[in-house]
Amino acid sequence: xxxxxxxxxxxxxxxxxxxxxxxxxxxxxxxxxxxxxxxxxxxxxxxxxxxxxxxxxxxxxxxxxxxxxxxxxxxxxxxxxxxxxxxxxxxxxxxxxxxxxxxxxxxxxxxxxxxxxxxxxxxxxxxxxxxxxxxxxxxxxxxxxxxxxxxxxxxxxxxxxxxxxxxxxxxxxxxxxxxxxxxxxxxxxxxxxxxxxxxxxxxxxxxxxxxxxxxxxxxxxxxxxxxxxxxxxxxxxxxxxxx
Length: 243
Known about the structure:
This protein is of the alpha+beta class.
């Protein structure tokens, strides 16, 4: 059995197809496969490690916590991001400080705050109550709640939301649109607008630049009774003190 598990673990790296079946079988085995999976993790490439993280999350055993914490120091930014979010979904005890260190290290590498890794780590810190987003009064009043408990806002109020956030010195990073149909949510294409902020600029400039870009996006955004927008934004405190 051990040899079979080790073979499955090595197949996790094969993105041509075998990784999917190996992932499913390891999930079915559950925690029984964890010792070998943990031991074999260093021998896997980035794709295999990401698939292993999926196995850990699906099985839902927090005993994989130390391994996931170790992956926060990976050379692969996607592995670091997925490890951080997995630690949040598994509610691993003692993982807050390692994630804070991972976030600081991410910014010290000059990774733009709107890239997936810092975005994912901020989400993970928020989920565990280690980060409190700034939610201005109007933004709070307009907020609706998805079936899964995630916050969202009616797209008809997108402009009000943008101005409320910017008026309270929040930088909007991007926005996603969702449509509710028969109790299910579907992603909706927004505008083709894409922007890059100059993170060397003063905070006040970033706030106004993100406001202007977001308002342009709002002018072309999908609107409807069942369409919602989910913006991502940060506060000055989410960046190093020198910012």
